[in-house]
Design goal:
The protein contains 17 helices and 16 strands. The chain has about 525 residues and is an alpha/beta fold. The structure holds 3-methyl-2-oxobutanoic acid and zinc ion (ZN).
Length: about 525
């Protein structure tokens, strides 16, 4: 959709994703060209209306990525960011030139604090700069967005004059950022009501929200802005962005979808693509998502308390306000732990293909409770060990042999690994980006499994001190199969190797069962 065609009076909200600009410029989130192209494709496929692809004047690499994304993306409008400077606008204009639908996003600070200390400009000079920058941007495209940086801390009279100037010069979208995450929902909503009442030409532009999360209010503020008349939300996947981040795309979208009774607005996002986008981003950036993060955290659809598990098994709506499928997950997760009840335990056994009689179930449940008191994470392999049913055993195709690691600051890191493959000794040496990577590369050399991805690598010290026992967890995924392996050793690398080959053995076992049509 060309965002310019949006009727400002209807309930359609434009989703403007700035993962590749505001998100990418935050610590730990930088991406190379190939990664940005991969992410842009995912965003386009999920139905984002506008992709802010970067800040072209910032570096040669930024320019190139905006240019390449502009060539690649099929549906979304591509926006390039620029300050109110000729060279910036020129760079943004030429970088987005190959896009089917293009937008220039130009900004300048409007708060007294920023004008005085950052820009060293008078308010009148800022108004002139707004006029000149928007006028110049319009030479490259008729889709021009203007942003009042630090808008939420701007004097209201001045903000009205600035917005009127930008629209008169040709801006078709007016964005009012809460740059420092200072606003409350009431303050922020009021700004939009005020602008709509006081700016004479306001009906010629789409109003936009852009909220940072310094007080944890970015999503609430964005929705308050939309309720007050804004029709564009600027947001990022997983909420990445400067400092505490930006409003999370998945949260604003699912809030509008789940509470349509309050937020009766349409958007173009295919919400079933949300998990894919979240995982693609954390994989690319290695910026992991906190487990209790709304919508995309590992625990967002996981239940451990016995009472909740029991409710979930009877009717999922008892403890879930949206379905896991609606965000692209296969199912909710019942996590077995010390709070779990008999019902959840029995269900887990049934999933594993085990139907125990009442007495056997009671005994197994008691053993499970004892284990859960001692062990933090209970995996399927722990339950299998409790029950010891021969159908559930995993074939030990790979067995650990020996491991030598060359690590340290002089690089390269090398793993020298011997495994037994069906009893036969096989040796491989591999380099990597750090010792763990070198080790996992060596395993891949011995047993290629290119379609499997490493979903989780977690190290946990079981005891204290420098001789602590390390417990490592590895989670692998290949298509629909997800497996977990654990290993424990005083040497973290040995524990990592054991965990990896356990997860891989399970994956190979399950793959084999699927191929011959047996339920795992
Ligand atoms: O937070 C902000 O003010 C921004 C602008 C550049 C739009 O990111
Ligand atoms: Zn921002």
């Amino acid at each position: 959709m060309n965002s310019q065609n949006t009727n400002k009076t209807d309930n359609r909200v434009i989703i403007f994703d700035t993962t590749l600009r505001d998100g990418e410029q935050s610590p730990g989130c930088s991406m190379n060209l190939e990664e940005k192209l991969r992410m842009a494709t995912v965003l386009d496929e999920m139905g984002v209306d506008v992709i802010e692809a970067g800040f072209p004047i910032a570096s040669k690499g930024d320019y190139e990525s905006v240019y390449e994304i502009s060539k690649l993306v099929k549906n979304a409008t591509i926006a390039g960011l620029c300050r109110a400077r000729e060279a910036d606008i020129e760079a943004a204009g030429t970088a987005i030139a190959p896009a089917k639908s293009r937008r220039i996003h130009t900004f300048i600070s409007t708060s007294p604090l920023h004008m005085k200390h950052k820009l060293n400009m008078t308010p009148e000079a800022v108004l002139d700069a707004i006029h000149d920058s928007v006028t110049m941007a319009c030479k490259f495209t008729d889709d021009v967005e203007w942003s009042a940086e630090d808008g939420s801390r701007t004097d209201h009279d001045f903000l009205c004059r600035a917005v009127e100037t930008a629209i008169a010069a040709g801006a078709t979208t007016i964005n009012i950022p809460d740059t420092v995450g200072y606003a409350t929902p009431a303050d922020y909503g009021f700004l939009f009501t005020m602008l709509r009442e006081r700016v004479p030409n306001i009906d010629k532009a789409v109003l936009s929200v852009h909220c940072h999360n310094d007080l944890g209010l970015a999503v609430a503020n964005s929705l308050a802005g939309v309720q007050a008349g804004a029709r564009q939300i600027e947001c990022t996947i997983n909420g990445i962005g400067e400092r505490a981040g930006n409003a999370a795309l998945e949260e604003v979208v699912m809030a509008m979808r789940t509470r349509a009774d309050v937020y009766d607005f349409d958007n173009n996002i295919d919400s079933t693509q949300i998990m894919r986008a979240s995982r693609t981003l954390s994989k690319i950036t290695s910026f992991s998502v906190q487990p209790n993060k709304a919508i995309v955290g590992a625990n967002a659809f996981a239940h451990e308390s016995g009472i909740h598990q029991d409710g979930m098994l009877k009717n999922a709506q008892t403890y879930e306000i949206m379905t896991p499928e609606s965000v692209g997950l296969k199912e909710s997760e019942i996590v077995l732990g010390k709070h779990s009840g008999r019902n959840a335990f029995r269900t887990k056994l049934q999933e594993l293909g085990l139907d125990l009689g009442d007495n056997a179930l009671n005994e197994a449940f008691q053993r499970f409770k004892n284990l859960a008191d001692r062990k933090k994470d209970i995996f399927e392999e722990d339950i299998i060990a409790l029950i010891d049913d021969e159908n559930l055993r995993v074939s030990e195709h790979l067995k650990f042999g020996t491991l030598g690691i060359q690590a340290g600051s002089q690089g390269p890191q090398v793993a020298d690994l011997t495994l037994f493959v069906d009893g036969k000794e096989v040796h491989a040496e591999s380099e990597g980006n750090g010792p763990v990577d070198a080790l996992f590369n060596a395993i891949r050399k011995i047993e290629p499994h290119d379609d499997a991805v490493l979903l989780l690598y977690k190290v946990h010290a079981v005891t204290q001190g420098t001789d602590a026992q390390a417990e490592v967890t590895v989670k692998l995924q290949e298509g629909d199969i997800t497996t977990v392996g654990q290993g424990a050793d005083v040497d973290t690398m040995v524990a990592s190797c054991q965990a990896y080959i356990r997860a891989l053995n399970k994956l190979l076992t399950q793959r084999g069962k699927e191929n011959i049509g047996v339920n795992p």
